[in-house]
Design a protein that fits this description.
By secondary structure, the protein is mainly β. The protein has one domain. It contains one helix and eleven strands, in the order αβββββββββββ. The protein is globular, with a radius of gyration of 19 Å.
């Protein structure tokens, strides 16, 4: 009985490490955790042509705030060098709700999310925030769109000829209206 606590402690230490890489033998199923000691959320995932994964979400750090985040992993879920990447505009809180992996051509990604702009009082307004990123994670451009209402993008698709189609909603007078946008 006196050895039970040290054994349990050793097992917990061995099993709690999420920094271990997943091997080919474990590749059929795996569970990985990403993030730091604060609140991180995944919002969308894409399987890339080489079997690796692109994951977008929100990273929250005290003193820094919320940031749009992009993780790229190998086919076993191990982070690729140089990732995660973080994006914001004018140091305002931001986050990603949808991700699009662009096939062919330049490749890369379109992150779709929000940016929180301060309003009078203690409230904030959510505007659309888009970031176009190369396959290597380099920021190509970023744009924000907004009105006096709150807007949110939930899904993105590649257009047939060029550009992107975005779907989400706008909150007006406390009610949500469907929003579709081409960029």
């Amino acid at each position: 009985m006196r050895y039970i606590y040290p054994i349990v402690l050793v097992l917990l230490l061995v099993l709690s490490s999420c920094e271990k890489e997943v091997s080919e033998a474990q590749a059929d199923q795996f569970l990985k955790f990403y993030g730091q000691q604060y609140s991180d959320e995944a919002r969308d995932i894409e399987v890339l042509e080489d079997g690796s994964y692109a994951i977008c979400g929100v990273d929250s750090v005290p003193g820094v705030g919320k940031r749009m985040m992009l993780l790229i992993t190998d086919e076993y879920g191990n982070l690729k060098p140089g990732f995660p990447k973080y994006f914001t505009e004018d140091d305002l809180p931001s986050g990603a709700n949808a991700l699009l992996a662009k096939r062919g051509g330049q490749g890369g990604f379109l992150l779709c999310g929000y940016i929180e702009r301060p309003r009078a009082g203690s409230t904030s307004q959510r505007d659309l925030f888009l970031v176009r990123i190369s396959s290597s994670g380099k920021e190509l451009w970023k744009k924000s769109y907004g009105s006096a209402e709150d807007e949110t993008i939930l899904h993105a698709a590649e257009g047939l000829s060029s550009g992107f189609m975005l779907a989400g909603y706008q909150v007006k007078d406390g009610k949500k209206d469907i929003m579709v946008m081409g960029v």
